Amino acid sequence: MEAKPLIPRHIGPDLNQIHLALVDCARQLRYTARNVPGTDSVATETPHRQSSIPRPPLPRFLGSFGHLADSLLETAEAYAGHAIPPLQDHWKLPVEIDIDAESLSHCADDTKRIRSYSAVYYAAAKRFILRAGAADVLIFEHRINEGFIEFCEACRSASSAGEPAVAPHMTTESDVCQMFARLCLSLIDKHPIRSARFVELPDVLAPWWLIAEPNAYVFLLLGLLGCARRLCPGSLPADPDRALSLMADILGTRESKFRALLRERAPQALEQEFASIVKFL
Amino acid sequence: MSERCTTMEGRGPNMWQAATRLSSFSELLREHCRAIRSGFGVSVEVQDRALTAAFFAWAQIVEHHGADPRRNTPDYFQFLVGALLAQLLAARAIDTVPRIEDDRAAEGGRAIARWWPAGFALTTFCVELVRKVIAQECGEIVAASDKFGDIKLWQSFRENLSEEPSIAIAYFDAFMGLAPNWRNPSFFRERAAAHRKA
Asked: How far is it, in rounded angstroms, from Cα A25 to Cα A72?
């Protein structure tokens, strides 16, 4: 007989969100400590610019602020460790975007699964932005989680109302494109990427759009990759980083079209654009 | 998703389908570069990011003309492959790599290949591609005309390309023995074949 869970099921998602929000709080503290002008971390990244300028005395409390944030993160991970594997360093290795589209559209109650997808998206977004040349980045994972939850709930209510708006069975290419396009919009709306600090200009093909609108750029990229991974996995490079770079190059060729689609808030047109890219992969 | 080909010679699967998918298209182009290297002694290499940019710019042209009433005619494929050549050249999808065996090009008298390796490699690739596609899709045999060996035409091609990338479509028509539309090469409806039908 299955043991009764200690925590009532209906508050599971809320507790999960609180945990993520706490972790994000610690991340924000750490990001702030790292990026205050005049601190060691910022100064060491731009030594040539600082050399001739007399540096103001460093605010000492910022160092301990960073340490405090680190210990907070460690504590949060330790408490959550039994449920979810540690996430802090996931981004340091290539991240595979492998979302099971069919299960995602049916897992509104599966907190653990949603959280694992949020963790994958968090790590992939962070890794991509840092590889594009950012010196530091702050992403709120709880907002990614919220985006996933809202998407799953929309799927469930559409399915129970018998609406064809969100197709739950993923039987056709169009269903899959539709799912990833809607998920993508749901994530962009949450603005999980709070800040990305670029010391130098990013790579030429991941250009100003990434700096100006990191949420739109990164979540379109991840949505497109998820869609392609599901529909034509054999057409993508095996290395996750190369696959992401390929998607960034493709996105670069259609930037104006995607920006127009996002301005119009047209999920169906976005879905068609995903489909028209995937069929050429 | 579907079948795809890896070589240009003797393939059963659909050539147009292979040409309109980045993964198989890039394989075809890489294979062609290897063949150019061994056959002409010039080293050319595919630049992945430039190829992606060129291919997806071309994909938009293909989509734009997808509903054209003449979409299954030889001239339709001729035009699209010409547009592909223009995009590949404009994006510098392949680059020349200096190598010792480059001297073989001069020995073999392959002046054009040595003089403009990237342009020669991409144009020969497109000639071969259009030949295969038209044979499969329309059941017609087409081949490059005598103008293909005319160094002066190549010189004018290279010179004019720097000013107007889409002119590659007109030169590609000339190489294939068709009447080029020098004024508006990227306008499908203004091609000579369209006027003949009308």
From this structure: 9
